[in-house]
Design goal:
The complex is a heterodimer. Chain A is an all-alpha fold. Chain A has one domain. Chain A is built from 14 helices and no strands. The radius of gyration of chain A is 23 Å and the shape is globular. By secondary structure, chain B is α/β, with parallel strands linked by helices. Chain B has two domains: 205 residues, Rossmann fold, CATH 3.40.50; 69 residues. Chain B contains eleven helices and 13 strands. In chain B, helix 6 links the parallel strand 6 and strand 7. In chain B, helix 5 packs parallel to helix 6. Chain B starts with a strand and ends with a helix. Classes of the chains: A mainly alpha, B alpha/beta. Chains A and B meet through helix 1 and helix 5 of A and helix 1, helix 2, strand 5 and helix 3 of B.
């Protein structure tokens, strides 16, 4: 069961090159953005006072640390958004493409069970894609910091003192990785649903996946006058985004009144496993996800492709 | 165990349509069985049932396993080529070999490489399947299959869409690289004439039912074709041929369980081709 996962996941990476390409392209664009910003800063040093350069104007280490960590968090968020879109398209394609190109008969001619195959695709979406994106995040952050160090050195500053010492890289990376895996678990009902749609859709899996999400709350409200589905959907999608926005707002207060929230200086503090795993909603979501994934296995197994 | 495949009362319904209707047969070790039938006869459905790709009613055992419920175990000892199109088009040749090597316990990478070495594919290890010609894809697929130490090989229209040279080569390679007395082959094709020389057994299927199941040896005993004309033709006609056709003004009649002595006096006797016998049987079943 487990021995087959490595070749199966490797196969997913061969087939879906966007898993690598997307984070690398976003990372390169961001690095280029850093380079251009620094170029512009050099041209308008007097007027512009943003970016990592601003850290040098901050009075003490803790403020500097907060700003650096906050700025380093920007590429994480952008790569995360790109990754989310990637996961949606990947999971909708995962069990659809092999039927469309008829290669499913070949895959099924090997001694690999349908459960192993579907699980490899779920693992790719929930674990492998986040891990690859995580590596891209680290690389982008390091490239940005190296570019900035060079720029600071050219401008006559001390890069080690200004950005490398205040940056809480280990705490930031640990928090990013943990946060990404928590997000995977939290959003897993969508992953399960997409894989299930991908297993049965004859065409247009994206449309088929989106329609019920839009139609069900409307139908529920119309027929029963209730909003249970809609509220569950909001709880799953809007609330974490609102929480993230609150966090971001808290961190931006630094520039206004120089109040440093502790978690931005040490991002790992923001990770609260106990609270996360104690949420009933999380476990309910995981059950929904497991149900859809099981259904996808059965569809792949029982569906007649002729 | 000499019977690799045992089917007893196997049926498969799709709604009201009965694709396979109460079929019973056995395939013994070391045979090459041809499964011949017109389009929509239930060939593919039957093969799918054998491969565990679809559930069915009745008793079906392949290598002593229930194909649908023990598919993974079954796939260790069965190979199949359904059509040349089934290899994923995006995969590169070396990736395909890597994948099969890492998932199939009975696959020999060395043997696959050695077989590929003899083909045009050997110089194209880094190419994607979509960049190869249809003939090369088939060679690649057959090389992989031949490198799997499997006891049963199922081929469903393996040479569809290939030109005559590749088709001839395919069956020649199949016999030289794959087949031995430990292995068994079940093959379906429309091009019966190309495989009848290699078959040891033949089975006709029409409208979901098996209408003939015989060895090629006994086929030659059971059926005879008489070529005759004129008055002798009408005498022969009275002996109840199962089919008749005209070639160059002569009548060619097909007899089941013939009285060779009497027929021999009426004209030339031949062993009928599988294709002619097939046409006669299908028409006979329809009449």
């Amino acid at each position: 069961m487990i021995a087959n996962q490595i070749p199966l996941i490797r196969r997913e990476l061969w087939e879906h090159r966007s898993i690598f390409v997307t984070p690398i392209v976003i990372g390169l664009i961001l690095s280029l953005g850093v380079l251009m910003t620094e170029g512009m800063l050099t041209a308008h040093t007097a007027e512009v006072d943003i970016g990592i350069a601003a850290a040098s104007n901050l009075p003490d280490e803790s403020h500097r640390s907060a700003v650096i960590n906050g700025l380093l968090f920007i590429p994480s968020v952008i790569i995360l958004i790109g990754m989310s879109i990637l996961v949606i398209f990947y999971s909708l394609d995962a069990l659809y493409a092999e039927r469309k190109d008829k290669s499913i008969l070949f895959w099924r001619s090997l001694p690999v069970t349908d459960a192993e195959t579907v699980i490899s695709k779920a693992l790719t979406a929930a674990l492998v894609i986040p891990l690859i994106s995580f590596v891209a995040i680290i690389a982008t952050q390091l490239i940005s910091m190296i570019l900035t160090s060079i720029w600071i050195m050219i401008e006559g500053g001390n890069a080690i003192h200004l950005i490398w010492e205040p940056a809480s890289l280990v705490s930031l990376w640990a928090a990013t990785l943990a946060g990404m895996l928590m997000l995977s678990l939290w959003f897993s009902p969508f992953l399960g649903w997409f894989l299930f749609v991908s297993a049965f859709a004859k065409r247009m899996p994206l449309l088929l996946a989106a329609l019920p999400i839009i139609m069900l709350p409307m139908l529920e409200n119309w027929i029963f006058g209730s909003k249970i589905f809609f509220e569950a959907f909001l709880l799953r999608t809007v609330e974490p985004v609102r929480d993230a926005a609150e966090t971001a707002k808290a961190s931006f207060q630094i520039s206004e009144n120089l109040r440093v929230s502790s978690f931005i200086a040490d991002p790992w503090q923001a990770i609260d496993f106990a609270n996360f795993f104690a949420k009933l909603d999380l476990w309910a979501g995981l059950i929904v996800s497991a149900t859809f994934i099981t259904a996808a296995v059965y569809v792949r197994r029982y569906r007649d492709e002729s | 165990m000499t019977s690799l495949v045992k089917a007893h009362g196997v049926s498969k319904h799709f709604g009201n349509v009965c694709a396979v209707d109460d079929v019973s047969f056995e395939i013994k070790k070391g045979r090459i069985m041809g499964l011949i039938g017109p389009n929509g006869a239930g060939k593919t459905t039957l093969l799918k049932a054998l491969l565990g790709l679809t559930d069915c009613d009745g008793e079906l055992s392949v290598l002593g396993l229930d194909p649908f419920r023990q598919r993974k175990d079954l796939m260790r000892n069965i190979c199949f080529i359904a059509d040349v199109a089934v290899l994923p088009r995006w995969i590169r040749v070396f990736q395909l070999l890597d994948f099969v090597e890492s998932t199939h316990p009975n696959f020999s990478r060395d043997k696959a490489e050695a077989l590929l070495e003899k083909t045009n594919v050997s110089a194209r290890r880094d190419s994607r399947v979509r960049e190869l010609s249809k003939g090369m894809v088939t060679q690649l697929h057959l090389s992989i299959i031949a490198a799997i130490d499997a006891r049963l090989l199922i081929l469903d229209e393996p040479t569809l869409g290939l030109d005559i040279i590749f088709r001839k080569e395919f069956y020649a390679n199949l016999l030289s690289d794959y087949f031995d007395e430990e292995r068994t082959i079940l093959v379906t094709t429309h091009q019966v004439e190309e495989i009848e020389n290699i078959l040891t057994d033949v089975m006709f299927i029409n409208e979901g039912r098996i209408i003939l199941d015989t060895t090629m040896d006994s086929l030659a005993d059971s059926y005879v074709e008489l070529m005759t004309s004129g008055e002798q033709a009408s005498k022969a006609r009275n002996m109840g041929p199962i089919a008749e056709r005209d070639i160059f003004g002569k009548s060619v009649m097909l007899f089941e369980r013939p009285d060779r002595g009497r027929l021999g006096e009426l004209g030339e006797l031949h062993t009928p081709s599988v294709a002619d016998l097939f046409v006669a049987k299908i028409k006979g079943a329809a009449a």
